[in-house]
Specification:
It is built from four helices and no strands. By secondary structure, the protein is an all-alpha fold.
Length: 122
């Protein structure tokens, strides 16, 4: 074997090895990004449900006009607006997040209505 052949073989083996290492590394990084995206979307769902629940509580006759609840509601809305800026991150794994938020809001409203009905019956 000539020295050119040996050099080419070493460079080829090194290149293949480096590509395999980079492939393994990229898979791990993408896995972490995917997990972070899942967590971010879950946090957003909970915050949105919290905002909707807070708005519902604020609109009840008992609490309507309460300044503390109004400030809390405004703060929750600001947090949700801020998180909307990062929609690309959490929509990476949850392209149907808006439908999930709507479903979570409906469930929350049903639970609140059931609690309200059971309190009136007592």
């Amino acid at each position: 074997m000539s020295s050119v052949t040996i050099t080419f073989l070493l460079i080829s083996v090194l290149s293949v090895s480096l590509n395999i290492i980079l492939l393994i590394y990229y898979r791990r990084v993408i896995g972490r990004i995917y997990a972070a995206s899942e967590e971010a979307s879950e946090i957003f769902v909970y915050l949105d449900a919290f905002q909707e629940h807070l708005a519902t509580v604020y609109e009840t006759p008992t609490f309507y006009g309460d300044e503390t609840l109004k400030r809390l509601l405004d703060h929750a809305q600001e947090v949700v607006k801020h998180l909307n800026k990062y929609e690309e991150v959490y929509s990476f794994t949850q392209p149907d997040l808006l439908e999930q938020l709507a479903a979570a809001t409906e469930e929350l409203e049903k639970e609140y209505d059931q609690e309200e009905t059971s309190q009136k019956e007592e």
